[in-house]
Structure formats: C-alpha cells, structure tokens
Protein 1
Amino acid sequence: MSDEKIAVVPVVTARQLRRFARFNVQLYRNHPYAVPDLIRDTRNSFKPSRNAALEFCEVQPFIALRDGVIAGRVAAIINHKANQVWNVRTVRFGWIDFIDDIRVSGALLDAVAAWGKERGMDRLEGPFGFTDFDPEGMLTFGFDRIGTMATIYNYPYYPEHMLKLGLTTSAEWSERHIPYNEVPEKMARLSKAVMERYNLHVARLGRSKNAEARIYAHKLFHLINESYAPLYGYSAFSEKQIDGFVRRYLPLLDKRLAVFVLDSGDELVAGALSMSSVALALQKAKGRLFPFGWWHIVKALKWKHTQTLEMLFVAVKPEYQNKGVSAIPFSVLTKSATDMGFTLGETNPELDDNVKIQSQWSYFKGVEIVRRRAVFYRPI
C-alpha cells in the first residue's frame, strides 16, 4: 500500500462530477443500513442553476484517486452568510466519503483546508452541507440501524479517521425512535390547555387545498429561519431556496402529516412536517430515479408506506417557546400518524443541547436513542 500514489484533484468536468456523485453509491453498494444518495440530486447540488444556496456559497468538489482508481470524495464549501452570522472564517467539508485508508481521508481534508486558506478561512469543520437542508453530522453511534433520507450513513472508521487526523468534536446530535400507539394523555391535556389559553387553532388541509398548503409551507420555512437561528451553525434559507423547496417537495407531501398552528389572526406560530420513511425505497432505487427508482419512492410516499414516520421539521415562534405550544403539533401529528397506521416515529438529528425539543419525548414511553452524530473541526 505504501507504494500506491494518492492524488486529490478538483472536480471541473461533467465526467468528474458524475464520478463524484456515484462514489457514495458504489462504496455502500448492497449495504444493509446505508441509504444511498440520489446521484442526480448530488450532481444538481453543485449546479448554480439548480441550487439557490450557491448565491451565497462558494464550493469546490474534489475526488481522491489511489493509483488512478477513485478512493474518496469531498466538497469544500464556504457559506458566507453563515460565516457572517456566526463571526467565523470556516471552510466546511461535506459529501465526504473515503475508503479505509487514512492517507486518502487526510489528503481530502488537506485539499479542503488549502482551498479554504487561499480564500482567507482559518478553520475547517464538517460534515456540513450548504445549509441545514443538506445532510450534516458524521455518524458516531448506531451503525447497525438503517439510515434515513435526510441523514448521513457512514462506516465506523470515518470518525476514527477524524480523530487520528487531529480534528475535535464541535457539536453533537442525537436521533430517536418514538413508539406510536396513542397520543400521550399528558401531552394531549397540555395541548388543549395551551390552545385555549393563547386562542390558537390548527389549520386543516384537505387533499385538494394545494394553494393553501403552498402558502403555509412558505410561512413554515420562514418560521424555521426564525426559530432555528440560535442553533449551532444554522444558515437561514433564502427566499429563492424556499421557493425551490416548496415547488419541489409540496407535490410529494401528504397533507395529513403536516401541522400548522395559527393564532387568532391566522398567523403561523408553530408547525411540523413529516413523511413516510423512504429509506427502503431509496435502497431499492440504488441511487437512480430512472428507470424504476421514482416508482419505489412515490409508492412509499403515496400508496404503500412503511410503519415508520420520518419527522422532518418542527418549529415554534420564539415568543411562544417555553409555553407548551410545541405540544400542539406533536399531539396532532401523533394522532394522524397512529390513525394512518404508523407505529414508529423517527426524529431528525437534534442537537444535544437543544433541551426545548428533547423535552417533548418525555411524554412518550419507550423512547430510544438510536443514532448519534458529530461534526469535527481543526484550525488551518
């Protein structure tokens, strides 16, 4: 192995971008727990015409070659908006995958660090994407559990490489399984009392109310920007990003799994989005929408869902936080989920110091932490 040459090259051609996008699928081919990226989505992430985050981010993907054979990939990202908000000069690394060869992982991070340093950055951190809508955080626990659409799966040697290469943990997240059978009585009582106290109500969206759903979806993303602003590394969505998200994902949304809590003036004060798990469908798709990948995904969302619900977003307006308002979307969502036959809720990664959201799980019995993940950093 010592005679093998490692070369890291910047991705500049369409062919190189295809190799970059396919590498994750190849590295985890037929893995029982990995949920592969959609190759087309990965490629589109690096095209300004398809990714509105590139209006305020710089990016350079790299691939690592070991004796000419692809052995790793990484994207160097500078989110200028986040750096300004958090008063840092950070170059992010994302979309990082590599074989179990520390020369490869080290060369990838060195390439990111050098690229960032040329642009005035003084610290390296990741895995992060452009914004919080991209998968972030390297898996450190729960390698024997199937992943989700919205998160990263990686081999156990990944975080071991990070530590050996001198990186330190900067933030950690936990993911939980929430057993569903009924709305917890205490949560239901609190939800009812809070709605009465603050004169709140829940918007009911039928299957045909697409225009109304589009309005609420826009409001929810603005609420996410407002409520998530204090969370570590958060980068607010731009209006163009929100337009793109709503246009792309609203047609796939089952409105029974969306909750919008309104005040007396019909202004949004809390909301939640969730969806049937598509992890198994993405495994069947093997990274490709065509010819049959799209069918597996749409079927899992529309007609033959699993018993697992992925909880995507929950947001509460800052002035309503710590007042029990978060119990409302959880109560409504739990009722809808159980009525639809879901038996398990799967949380998105939650920062370990985000006690506001984690306090909701105390109402449920049998809650289990199933995965942990972290981001790592080092000065450059």
Protein 2
Amino acid sequence: MARDLQKLQKQYNSSLASGGRGMMGGPGRGGQRGHGGGRPKNMKKAIGRILHYLGEYKIHVTAVLFCLVFSTVTSLIGSYMLFPIINRIANVETTEEESGALAVKADEAIGAVRDFLYPFISPMFENDRHADIFIYVFTAIIILISVYLIGVIATYLQQRIMLTVSQGALQKIRQELFEKLQKLPVRYFDTHPTGETMSRFTNDVDTIGTMFDTSLLSIIQGVIQLVGTLIFMITTNIYLTLVTIVFIPIFIKGGSVIAAHSRKYFSAQQSALGAVNGYIEETVSGQKVIKVFNHEDECCEEFNLLSDDLKGKQFKAQFFGGIMGPIMGNTGQISYALTVGLGGVLMVTSGFTPGALTVFAQYARQFSFPINNISQQLTTIFSALAGAERVFAVMDESPEVSDLPQACETPIEGNVVFDDVTFGYVPDKIILKNISLYAHKGQKIAFVGSTGAGKTTVTNLLSRFYDIEQGEIYIDGKPIKEYKRDFLRKNIAMVLQDTHLFTGTVRENIRYGRRDATDEEVEAAAKTASAHSFIMRLENGYDTVLEGDGANLSQGQRQLINIARAALSKAPILVLDEATSSVDTRTERHIEHGMDRLMASRTTFVIAHRLSTVRNSNAIMVLEKGEIIERGTHEQLLEKKGRYYELYTGQRELD
C-alpha cells in the first residue's frame, strides 16, 4: 500500500534543500526563479560583502550608473517633447507661464532646427501653414529619433558593461568558494550533504547573478524613472499630479498583498517539487529493485499522490503570480482614465492645452510601472542576499588547522606508532579508546571488527583528516603534526571502499596517483593491480574516456583502476579500506600476488571483511566498540580461540 502524502513529502522533499534546482516561476509578470531563498538574516552585512565584489569595478559601475541615468532621462525628455509638438499641430498658442519653461525650451530647440531646414523644404509647399507644420513635425521627429537613439545606445552600453561587472564578480565568488572547499577539513564534508554544498554553486550563485544582471539595475532605474516622472508631472500640472499620487498606496498595498500570497504558494510549490524530484531520483536509480519485487504499481500510486499535490500548489502559485501584472495594469488604467477625464475638464475650464494633457497622460500611464517593478524585484533581491549569506557562510567556515611553524618535509620511511590514542567525531561520543599499536617499515597491519568498531577512523587519523584529542601518532619517531599536512598525505596512498573516477581517460585516472608518471609506469601499475588485461579490451584501451564516475565499467573494474592508482604512487604508507570488497573471488585471487608486490616495501594498513585477505598480515587487530580486544598473527589469534577464531570459523559474523 502506498504511503500517505505527508510522509512521502517529508521523506523526499529534502532534494530541494540539498540542491534541487526548482523551476521557473514567481510573483509578477513572467515569474521569477524559485529559489526558496527567503529573507537574509543580516541584510547590512550581506550587502556590504556583495559591494566588496562590485568595488573592484568602480569605474565600470560608475559608467553603468551614468548610462542608466542617461537612458532614463532621454526617455522622459522624449515623452515631454510631445508637449510643444501637439500644441503646434493643434495651433494652440501658450505663454511661458501656461506651458512651463521646459516646454518652451523644447519648442525653442525644435524651432532652431526648423529655421535651419525651412529654406530648403518650404518651396515644396504652396501653403505656408502646411509647410510650417510639416517642417516643424519633421524636425521634431528627427530630434525625437536622435534622443531615443541616444537612449538606446546608453541602454546597450549599460547592459554590456554590467554583464562584464556581474560575470566578473560571479567568477570571483565561484572561484573563492571553490578554493575554500579545497581548504575545508574532511569533517565539513562528512557533516554536510553533497547536494547542499552543490546548491551553493547553483541556486545561490544564480540568485546573486540574477540580482547583478537585472534586479539591481531594475530597482535603480525604477527609482530614477519614478522620481523623474514625478518631477515632469509636477512641472506639467500639480493638480493632476496629486490625483495620480493618491493611487500610490493602492499600487503598493495591492502589490504587497498579491506578492505575499504568491510567495506563500511558491514556497509550497517548491517543497512539493522537491518531493517529486526526490522520488523520481530514487525510483530511477532503484529500478532494478522495483522490478525485482514488483513494486511498479505502488510507485505509480505514490508518484500520483505527489504529482497531484504539486499540480494543486502550482496552480495557486501560477495564478497569483500571473494576476500581479493584470491587476496592477488595470489599476493603472483606472488612474489613467481618471487623470485624462480630469485633464479634459481642465482644458475646458482653465486653458489646459492638448499637448500638456497628452504628455501628462503618457506619464500617468507609466507611473505605476516603476512601483510594480520595484515591488517585484525586491523579492529577488531578498532571495539573492539570502543566497549570498549561505555562500559566505561556507567561505567563513574554518579551514583545516594550519601546519605548525616547525612543520617539516623529512623523508618518510613508514614506521608508524599509535600511542594511547583516544578520539571521537563529536565530544560526547568516543569512537577510539586508548588505541596503541606499531607498524615497522614494510609490515602489513590488518583491522577486523564489526561495523562502527572504529577501523576506518584509525586510517582517517593517520592521514590527519581529523586531529586527535588525546594520545599521539608517530611516523618515523616524529608526531604527525610536525609534518606538513600536504607532504604527509603525499606519503600515504589510499584505496577506499567507495571508488571515485574522474571524467577523463583511463590513463589520466591512474596517473592521478602521481602526476609525473610516464605511460610505461602507468601501465606497469595497471599490471600490478591486474587491471591491464581488461583495460586493453576497452574500445580505446588506456585512452578510453570515462564519464559519469566510470559508469561504463563494472564495480570491480572501477576498483581495479583505483588500486592501480595507488600502485602508481610512491608513497611508503598504503591504506586499503575494503579495497577488494567489490572484486569477485576469482579476480581477488588474480590481484593478490600483485598486491603482495605492491605492499612488499610499504607499510600497509588493511581493513577487510573477508578474513581470507588478512591471513598473511604481520599483525591483526580485532576492534570492538573502539578498543583493541585481540591482537596477533593469524595463527596466534586462532590458537587463542577468541573473537577472531569465532569470526574466522563462522561461529560469529561481522555485522
């Protein structure tokens, strides 16, 4: 039977929190990208850090602001120049006091150009009145085209320069974020889901980019346009301006109410979308299991529950997001109609000119656009600042502890000592208790025990993925903290249970173990790991490109390449953490001799569930609840007939 809707959502909507990309949509015309960003916790600090990245482009930003002001002003001036044009066509004579100084200046500018053109064009007309109107309108059109063309050029430059600024700033943010990830300790990645970290590079950086590219400029342009429009409206007629201003609270209140509902439903939509995406991801990756146990019908039933829920929430989100534009637009039309009606009354009663009414109606029509645009863009700004906070939170994470001033790069031979080591990943939960052991150069030390006994933790401490609280680890008589961390890890090769292959050729993946290795050394390492034969059967041999973490290889083949990578390394210490767990018994026998050659001159630490792989170890440590309860060679432990004997003879199983 299918699970209920709430339980399904709770289980699967984590895909959104861990980096689900979401879908297009949002309040207002055209929608916004759904990021689930919310509001920033410390807006002032987030803005300050954002401005730090823009500060490197001060000249560019200044040029953008100049172009922005210029393009907005040219648009306003172009509209205002209709004032004298309409009056001249309507043959309405006005005084400077009636029309205003700006209209007179515009008329004088057109008249100056007209006087220049008049002698050339007037002979074409028999009627002086017709010639005068034609030349005046022709001149006005040329000037208007020139004004708007200048505005277009300014807008083009503004967008082009701002893209340079935004992409440069985003590149630096991504670069600093990626560089910080390389410096973070393993603890961070163990405690933060991969999807959550990836979402910082995708969702959060995208919202910052949207703010840089459009939202920030839209708000600045909206403010300039709003103030400029208001100034020109006041200049044209103060009384009609007051009528238009009355509608400002209506615009703001209406926009805020619709936006509030829109944000609520878009948040619900994103949660439902995350549940759908998470369920799809799990079912696609688990298709074999679903088919083996005949769960297709139950999966369809559960998916339909999630899909129907998403459909309902999408309907409400898109509805409220879609009505923002029409409602605000029609409210603006009401304001426009009322303004035009009152303007007509003023034309009859107080000599208000047709040109003035035309210009004012133009401004009244576009007056609501900046308010609507600003209210919509503020949501994106808040989401971007919240995303920036999450990006900066990663950047502010504490990096790995710096090397000691006296840290050295003394050549390492491979003598390892654990002296009374106690460790816990969290303070109140101890994983290892008073662990003491030693391994001489070239020895093979094996760890066996149940899951959670602390076997892998031992190797994590050896590589300084974590630092211990109590005790000490020595390599060649020096505490590992006295070695430079990078140098220490160069001297420890690891083959982990979870293999990871990078996009690239087989040769490049093996060479990851030592960048300066020759092709011959790469192939020799592959032969040591018994990987050479299957590599040569691939389509392009060592030059076969691996993608999707080596999806075109079997799990065993992927592990063999991983082993070859370690074989190529010249590190004197080798860690094998369930290295052959994904290799079948036959393949395991093939690589045993190669592994023996690999381990012959290296100090090797082996973690294995297959006890047959540790029989030839110099010492076997049996761990239980973080303590070494038995130690010795294979024969010695069998003679004791303790825990190892029970495990080896099958009287007890590893869990």
Protein 3
Amino acid sequence: MSAVARLDLHALPGLDAAQRPLVDPRSLGTGIVHLGIGAFHRAHQAVFTEEAIAAAGGDWGICGVSQRSRGVVDQLRPQDGLYSVLERGERSSVRVAGAVRDLLFAAEEGERLQALLAAPGTRLVTLTVTEKGYRHDPATGRLRRSDPEVAADLSGNGLPRTVVGQLVRGLAARRAADAGPITLLSCDNLPANGEVLRGLVGDFCAALPAAEGEALAAWITESVRFPSSMVDRIVPATTDEDRAQVARLLGYDDHGVVVTEPFRQWVVEDDFAAGRPAWERAGAVLTADVAPYEAMKLRLLNGSHSTLAYLGALAGHAHVAEAIRDPGIAGVVAALMAQDVEPTLAVPDGFDVAAYQRQLIERFHNPALRHRTVQIAMDGTQKLPQRLLGTITERLAAGAEPRFACLGVAAWMRYVWVRQAEDGTPLPVDDPLADRLGELTAQAATPQAVADALLSLEEVFGEDLPANERFRALVTEGLAALTKGGVAAATTP
C-alpha cells in the first residue's frame, strides 16, 4: 500500500503554487471531447488548452475518451481527472494539469459518448488515436470497409466501435438533436490530417443506405469543419521510476503521470465551426496553411525518429539517446534530413530549417527522456507512408537517389523479418498487419526475397513505388548490408 495519499481535487491546496493547475478545474464545463486520451494528448493539447483557458477563459474542459483500454480511465477517474506533467531536460519540473474534467471508456460507455457528441455544449472533438485508429489504407487514404469492425459499424447493429463510426453516428445524433455546428480536429501524424478525416467520414456516409447517408453528408458539409494540425512533442512511456519521482516532488501518488520534454509545438489551421480555445495565447500557431509545417515535422522529425528507432533497436540500443550517440546511426539521421528530406520541403518564410534540424538532433540526445526505440518502431505499416515514402517518391521523381530514406525502409524490413536485435534480444512487432508481415517473410530466405515480399503490400507502398527499379534496388541493397554486416556496416560511410 502506498505511503502517501493519492492525487485528487482535495490534494490541490497542499501543493506548492507552481505545482497547481493554472485554472480551477471545478469551474470548467465540458466543451471538448477528445478521442484517444493517451499520454501524448495529456502532455500536449491538454496543456495548451489549460493555458489558453487561463489566459482567455472559456468552457473548454475536456472529456477524455479511451478507446481500447480502461487503463487511463482507471488512472484518472479516482483523481478527478488530475495528473502531473513531468518535464525533463537540463532540469526537471512538475505541474498538475487540470483541463481534463471527465473520462469515459468507449467500449463500455458508448451511449454516453454518443450523447456527448450530440450535446450542444460540445463544440469541438479532437483526436489522437494514432495512424492505425483511422482504419484506412495509408497508401490511398480510403476507409478500409473490409475491416470487420468498420463493417459492423456500417451495419448499424450495436454501438459503434471504430473512431470514424463513433464520429459519424455521433454527428447523426447531433443533426437529429439540432445541436448546432461542431469541429473535428485531428492531431495525429497524417499529412493533411483534417482532409483525411473529412474523407473517411465521407466514405462512411457514402457506404450507408442512400436515404440516410446522403442527407447526413449534406448536413456535415454545412455544419462540420475539419481543420488540419501539426503536433510536436516527444512523450515517452511513463515508468515506475517516473511515478516515484513525481510522488517525491508532489507528496502525493499520481497514477497518471506523463513525461515529456520542454519543447512543444502546435500549428493549427484556423477553421472552426463553433469557436475554439485561445490556443495562440499558449504559443500555438494559428494559420491558413498547415501543410509546410506538417511536411517538415513528419519528414524531418518523424522520418528520422523511425529510421533511428529501427536501426537503433537492431543494434541493441534500447533508447533514442543511446542510438543517436552511435556515430554511424547519427550520420545516417543527419544525412537523411539534409540530403533526402530538406530538398522536398516548402519552407515557410523566415523559418530556419537548418537550425530546426540541429534542434531535432539535440532533442534526440536528451538522456532524461528515455524514449524506447521499440515504442517508436510500433505500427510501422501505418507510419512509413507519411514518414519516409513521401520523401522517397519526391526525390526519385527529381532524379535523385534517396539512399538514407531507403535505408530506413530497409531497417524496418530487417526488424519485421528477423524480430530480434543483433545480440539476440527479441524485438516486438506491434502492428495492425503483424500477422501478414509474418506470413510474407516466413518463407523468404534472402534479402531480395524479403524485399520483394514486403513491397507487395499495396496498402503500404501503393503500386507505383514498388515498380520503380531504383527504389527496389536501394531498399534491397540496404537490407542486404544490414543482413550481412549489421547496422555498423550498413551505416558506415
């Protein structure tokens, strides 16, 4: 049994002033429903939102929805939605966040979720459900109607289980209740994520019976906005050591600790149907065009992160800070950014892209975060198109050889093929297509055979890229080098 009391509203007066929420949580009404109340949202959008409320007011309290597990609900509900944000850099600091005012578990409280989506007070739905939560084919952006749960949601039998199903059924209830306009804001790492979400909602409506789907789609066109956004903050998985440190700093047990870095960035398309928090007062950039920022982040940070994670995990590096200290891997990451990615970017006026790359390298070096390479390596089939394949496609079209981005793809192939580090440590393959990846590589005995098998995944690679002989050659060469000499040999100039 814990020796200290658990964090909740009654604990707030006992905290140091700098550790307390910026707003009185009890004063907030719920204006935002957030799908995917994981660590990232709590360390990013929820922090921006609380700071915006503190600066400009508004009933923008958050109801956090957990999709697949009761874990976060069980952590935060006994704590009245409170949790601490532990920032780790040269110095550590901790503050209790107070913007999350309600929680629900969608699998058990689907009716309450639908009621919240239809409530007049709900004016904004935000999402961090990860790339796989959209149930789409990354190469095409279309809803995967063959997915059993998508098909079940389309049938209308029972409460919806998928994110898009929940949104569309919630919008239908909102239309029926005449509850007014609403905004759906994706905060996931997808290019043009607002347009992707709009398209998936449209796909779902189009798959409904015409009398139902067409009228709903017309209402959505008039009443719902789908702005795009770009989010950036590194948020590793919380450990027992992190929770123990927070207990020492606060004097209370917090089961919902999130750990993050000092850096944060949020760029949001300013297109809202029913108002929004004053996020610009918290440092967010509100703009008419998110795309240039989005491409820089997805390709420079996320593309490098994935390449670093696969190479690092294969080499036996458990954490990002260890992997980036490996000279060969560090050289690949720097070259990937400067030689492969930077020429594909439309850099906003006044933005120093070289300084941004240096800043990313510094963030990767932060040893206090202990960001696990296998955490970044998960869901590779959903991440590769946004993080590396766009860069590769554009550089090939320009007549260049994106050798370092192709090595990142080859490292993913080696990871899902051998499923162990060079020292024999098992590596988990946590991916929606994990079974198919296993089937495709099970009988492949050579790098060429593995590359051919994995490039047959059209939902990941599409049709055109695998048909490019230079791309196939670069990926196969990288995979062969990793297979023959390991990461050290493959990353040696």
